[in-house]
Protein 1
Amino acid sequence: MTCHEIRMSLTAYVDGELDLDELEEVELHLKECDSCQQLVHELEETTALVFAQLNSVVAPLNIENRVMERIADLHQEHQVHHLFIVYLVCGFLGICGIVALLISPVGAFVRAMFHLFLAVLNGLSFIPSSLGSWWILGTFLSTLLVVGISVFGVSRLLRSLKSEVVL
Ligand SMILES: [Zn+2]
């Protein structure tokens, strides 16, 4: 075999991947050829260096946890993105609903109620500030009085109806 033919299978020879016939041929050639022997020597050194480098590489501490955390983060980011789209669509549908409500005949009623609400707010703001917060207490107490009278009246009415039924 020529040097060129032998060199094609030298890597396999160094890695121990040759079958018996090929191995015999290569070894026979190597006994007689110094340059191929030199090449085998260099190949063996390079392989040893590569293995030494590979063995010196140590996985960073906690790499598994960090990878899992990163995956969880990515999953969360994806979910947040998904939720954002859902909220966006819901918001758009809500705005469409409000616009449709305002345009439709029901919208006139909604608008009227809104104006009434604004008018009440306006009226409240016209109460003189010299009264301070006493007017709130006054309003609250008079509301309580009205509610109390109503409840009292209703309960009396119910009682009288009951007694009429009994009689
Ligand atoms: Zn040779």
Protein 2
Amino acid sequence: MLSEPIGQDYSSASTEGPNEIRSDEETSALQLWRWSPPSHLTRRSSKADEMKYGSVEYQYAAPIARGLVEDADFRRWVLSKFNFSSSSDARILHREMQVHRRNPTAEWWRFYFTEACRCLGCSGKETDILAIFEDERSRRFAIHFEIKQPKDKFKADGVQARGYPLRAECWVGKPPPRVLPHQEASTGIFFSEAKRAEYEPHLDNFRTKITFEEIEQEFPQLAAWRQQS
Ligand SMILES: [Zn+2]
């Protein structure tokens, strides 16, 4: 018997969504995430849900976060693109991060933000994947990763991208209570090669730029997002 293919919701969500829905709602969206809103609050159109709650972004972020833990070659490959000295074999501290944040239902990498600090890096902004590592000299460093899924865009004001290096620096000095303390930090972005020209004004806020296409080529086993499109 015939049935509708699943996953249509994602492929039919076009780039030209209701853009204005994002602009002033990012902060409240972040708050809602933390509160796990009841479904009657989140059930708007599926496209609005997707834009606010990031399910497409999750399809990219989750395999990358998992790869950082489970695939040593991928982890080394990512770390080799940063400027930390002799750190490619650093240990990832996902277990320590999980314990430190004291929230057993939250994934170790996700939903890191603070509104307690009002600096330009922290206020109203979130790190998509926070990963903290420890090298053989017991030095701990954090990488703040932005995940820009191919249907997403940067707002023209540039605030989101500029916040990344500011936040990375801010948290070295005074990490939010649920963030594992660390001595150094850097920033990275995962994005689609097809968007390079569009994202160009924002990209240099990130120390390291890695495309989904590179991952698809080098680590096809990790590129689970391809099954969704
Ligand atoms: Zn701050």
